[in-house]
Amino acid sequence: MVLPTFNEAENLPLIIPAILDAVPGVRVLVVDDYSPDGTGDIADRIAASEPRVRVSHRSGPRGLGPAYLHGFSLCLADPTCTHILEMDADFSHQPVYLPDMLAAAEHADLVLGCRYMPGGGIEGWAWHRRAISRLGNRYARIILGAKIRDLTGGFKCFRREVLETIDLTAVQSVGYGFQIELTWRVLQAGFQVAEVPIVFPDRTVGQSKMSSRILHEAMLEVVRMRLR
Fold it and tell me: What is d(CA 199, CA 202) in angstroms, rounded to the nearest whole number?
């Protein structure tokens, strides 16, 4: 499990035990972007007493995409790693769904947690935020011609071979568009993608990293993907 963090000091001590309880055999890699709130120090203390937790303090440019790519490279360097997962650290991605995703990964190369299918949903969002999310997904599906219902989601389980095959060095998106681009590249490589329903509650502590700049970047990046 690659768990990128930036200012998640309140959530991290809770989300890591929840992940370990949901899948006892999982190992957690916290990739911290030098959070000023001390998240990295908290991660170090957890790792000191829990052998299934490892921490990487990333010194490169901040951003969701670079953090995940850094984490993926560390996971791929471990030959015992068969599946690589990603999720947010704020409980919007609930660890209770991890067994379902791993079960689906027995028959798919990439499994996505999907908010927009029967059994899935969103809790705690205002109507305009729901509308933006749905329109963003529809926009990406139309531009890219993809049939995935939740292209913008970041709750994923990859078979190792997927990340070994696609060219991670060519991924250009940094923020919100990273999730779209990663799934798009997996589809373009011919891998099988499955979706499982998840309920996505809004975070209860900490601040969302979403901004209008990130959203605009994602919209432009979708067009660039199509042109490429």
Answer: 10
